[in-house]
Amino acid sequence: MVSKAVLVFLSSWIIQNTEFNKIIDDPIFFKVTKKEMSDKACFSSKICRVKAYYIKNEGIFLIDELKPNIDICDQSIVLHEMIHHYQKNHDKKIDLDDRTLWTLQERQAIFYQNLFLLQ
Q1: Which pTM does this prediction carry?
Q2: pLDDT per position as a tens digit, 8-31
Q3: Residue 34: which of 52, 22, 55, 16 has the closest Cα?
């Protein structure tokens, strides 16, 4: 799945490069098939490009094709979901409606994913 070394690396990167300045417990990871991912994340088995997603109090669901222990692009996907884990588990209260908050959190995760890949 995701090695402890990769989790330490990604957590350290988050602490050093984002406003999240405190390491939190790692999320639980689940490996799912392409069909399971399509049904759960896209509500359809047709065209689904989702490779991973995060659910608070459950964990990170990764499509079984990912190889985050050896592929930097796949590590960036895990990092993106870990950013969501940090967003949902920090003590800061943000007074926005759910849709706006989701949009801003997704943009923030994409920003950090791209920054990670650039570095």
Answers
A1: 0.93
A2: 999 999 999 999 999 899 999 999
A3: 52
